[in-house]
Structures are given as C-alpha cells and as structure tokens.
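Design a sequence for this backbone.
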C-alpha cells in the first residue's frame, strides 16, 4: 500500500523533534487581505448557499479588521450562525467581547 500523509500546524514548536524529522517542512506566507477575502468568500458561498456575497464580504471584513484573527475558520463559524447582515454584526460584537484570546 502506498500511503502519503500531509499535515499542517500553526505551532511547530509544540511537536517533538523525532516527529518533526519525519516531515518535509514548508512555511507558507500569511494571506494578504485580497487573498483572505477571496478564500473566505468562496468557502462561505460553497458551504452556506443561503448567504449572498454582501454578507460573506462583511464577515471577512469583520474577521480581518475587527476581530483581528485573520483566520478563515472564524469566517466559517460566523457564517454558520448567520442569516442576515444584522446577524453578522451581532455575532461579531459578541465574539469581540467574549472570545478567549
């Protein structure tokens, strides 16, 4: 059986040296705003058919500029809870206020 394993992580330092030595390590650059917006919009549209582009763009703006995580997963989590632009604002306000650091 020919098996290939691909793995990603955000903090390589948490892995042991023997485990790290088994992988080819590549460091990817962080997304630019334009890349983040494109990826966020595409993923939100593909997973949440009920949301329009105005809402998905607002979600990306809030995650990038207000919540400041620049994390696509945050965009997707907000999208799951959203049905309107007002929902986006309410959810974002709650996340900014209560999300653990």
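Sequence:
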């Amino acid at each position: 059986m020919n098996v290939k394993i691909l793995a990603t992580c955000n903090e390589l330092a948490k892995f042991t040296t023997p485990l790290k030595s088994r992988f080819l390590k590549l460091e990817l650059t962080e997304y630019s705003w334009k890349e983040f917006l494109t990826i966020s919009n595409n993923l939100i549209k593909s997973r949440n058919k009920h949301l329009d582009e105005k809402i998905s763009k607002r979600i990306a703006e809030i995650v990038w500029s207000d919540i400041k995580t620049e994390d696509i997963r945050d965009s997707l989590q907000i999208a799951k809870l959203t049905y309107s632009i007002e929902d986006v604002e309410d959810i974002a306000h709650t996340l900014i206020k209560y999300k653990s650091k």
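The chain has a mean pLDDT of 92.
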